[in-house]
User: Fold this.
Amino acid sequence: MSLRLDFKLNLDGFVLDAQMNAGAGTTVLFGHSGSGKTSLINAVAGISTPQSGRIVLGDRVLFDAARKINVPMHQRRIGYVFQDARLFPHLSVSQNLDFAGRYAKEPSKPYEREHLIEILGIGPLLARRPAALSGGEKQRVALGRALLSKPELLLLDEPLAALDQARKQEILPYFEKLRAQNGLAMIYVTHDMSEIVRLADHLVVLRDGQCVAQGLAEDVLANPANIKLIGVQDAGALVRGVIHEHCDDGLSTIRLSSAMLTVPRVHGPVGQHVRMRLRAQDVILSLTAPQGLSSQNAIEAQITKILKGRGPGVAVGLRAGSDRLIARITARALDQMQLKEGQKIWAIVKANAVPPAAIAGG
Amino acid sequence: MMFMRKSLAVFLTAFAVAAPAQSEPITIFAASSMKTALDQVVAESGLDAIAAYGGSATIARQLAQGAEADIVILAHNDWMDWLEGQGALQSGSRCDLLGNELVLAGPANSIDLDLNTADDLLDALDGGRLAVGQLLSVPAGQYTAAFLEQRGWLTQLRPHLAETSNVRLALALVARGQAPLGFVYASDVAAQPDVRALFKPDPALYPSIRYPLALSADAQPGAAEMLQILTSAGPVFAQNGFHPLPSDDPTACSTS
Amino acid sequence: MTGAELAIVALSLKVAICAALFSLPFAILTAWALARGAFPGKSILNILVHLPLVLPPVVTGYGLLILFGKQGVLGGPLEAWFGISFAFRWTGAALAAGVMGFPLMVRAIRLGFESVDQGLEQAAATLGASKRAVFGRVTLPLITPAILTGVVLGFAKAIGEFGATITFVASIPGQTETLPSAIYTLLQVPGGETAALRLILLSVAISIAALVLSEMLARRAAKRVAGI
Assistant:
């Protein structure tokens, strides 16, 4: 189910000018607060109405300003998991789920509902009222409720933002399961990069009301030009690998396409595919094969692109086998090392730069 | 300094003494049925007076509770007796100011009715209700009850009554066509062009309607002048449908 | 209590309960329009709704006479087409009582609408609930405490209503002689205080019972709405 949108929305002076082409799978909408992420999905859901443009889901036109089409919210078949869960306080958890079933286009079969309850682990909560649930429990119920309405597209507005780290780690797997199982198209809004590595098929970067970059997550993150759009703290390429070995000293090895990467112990059996993010600013470049360094990870790579910005930083795109990396170095280093595109180079990554949270089952 | 203080004291005392000489307007509490007529009398009197209207029971209670009225005119002697018992009246000031007549009123374009039996009246009502003041407590209702009882019609008519809290409301009901007929005062009919008297009960069959008047126990001295004016305003009251009492009537207020 | 007094109490209860219940749907609609609507004439509606609160009751009663009397603008057609008549019947007393209590009911329910979390209504819409379904299954249940408060306020005003009632439909035993009417009548007769006392105490007792009941119900509803 693809979502195509191109609209302008004016909200109290803030102008959202969005163009997006999201295919099936999970699209992560990334941006800092105030960039317009929530406004975008609110327009998709029908909560707010753009001044001009089109929104098309699959083969259904949800909104077309020129043809005066504006499908009302309850007919869009778009589920929404809100940041604050928004469970109905006067109904029990079970009744909240029933509410979704009642208005779904085709209500779920009982076993589907049971299965969902099991996956989300909300069985023990069924008789409780929302006021008696913790933040994490509420979000799980909200997710279940949204799914039971059998939507064609699921919108999630920073569903983990209100939770602490421990809860986040607890719930992320549910979203990963969803992504893996259903084939349900999801748009997942977040400002937290670590959620991206685990969830994103596609990535859309939103900045000041504009979609400044979009495409496959790996492509967007591997493009050095996007470092300044994503922010130097968060920018980093996604690489895929296979768990090769778990060592006795608390480390694991992951086999990339052309190198081995040593990281802190990861969960998962040997042979499992994983995906991880290597932050640009954690990648050090060396003209020669490093000797006597504490880092275990030296990857032979070729420079594909050098981008000088206005500031002191330089974005460097690298290719190692079939993996793409990016590194951020100073302009001074660039001059001193006299780096050129096409040049062979060594990329060094600290093992600790790739914490378990940055690694997801591929 | 001493001189200043003394003159200030004299000034203030003079002021305080002068104050009572300036009196409040004369206040008349009167039964609602007197409104049109009494307003005219007060306006033409040229005196500084105001009239407040209400049901006789309400007025009597307020006066007994210390309301500052100088003259009170009620529509029935019961409440005046009660006020006398409460000591709220100036002794010797009570007299009957006016009389009135009970009439059966209907829409202005109806013809007179010839009523000899209760059924005649019921026929005339034609399923509608008979508007009257509350039989137990509104003076107009009390007089009506007396009349109906004398004629032996009360039992038959009771289920068809619409009892209102004052006679002007009964009048309004007839004027608006809400009730086809109603027992009101002749003075009410005179005040309301939309209705006319269709039948006049024989005055011998109900106690004579009297509007007793009295000065309140703490009436202002200026009230006596107003009282004189009221007593000699017979023509104005007559114009409005009231019956000024003949001068040889023993309980009538005298003009002397 | 004598049979006659019992009849008066029964009539008063009947009139007040009918007044409150029948004006409830109108009050909910009006409160919703005032809370959420944006239409020309909204401020005029607001003023109209509050008129019975600020006008002298007798004036309201007279207005009812003009509108719903036998020859009234609305009264005539209502009787001719639907057979509904208010003249000197308990229905008239209920109408008067309902009109007088209406502004209080609307105010209470409007406060309820204004305090509803509209985010919940949006969530319901995303789940596929139409506007009507959202109103019936989410909004209304959430304002139950406000509705209960409104109903009790309407009932309390109705059971104490006198001025408009007696102006509109007089005081007819068995039809329109409600408790306040009966008390008034007794007080109109010199020395009638003792007879009125019993009815006065009854009035007070009913009002207190209504208030206590409403407190209990509203508190229970509020708990349920908050999900406790």
Q: What stands out?
A: The interface with chain A takes residues 117, 119-120, 122-131, 133-134, 137-138, 141-142, 224-228 of chain C (CB under 8 Å). The two ends of chain C are 43 Å apart (CA to CA).
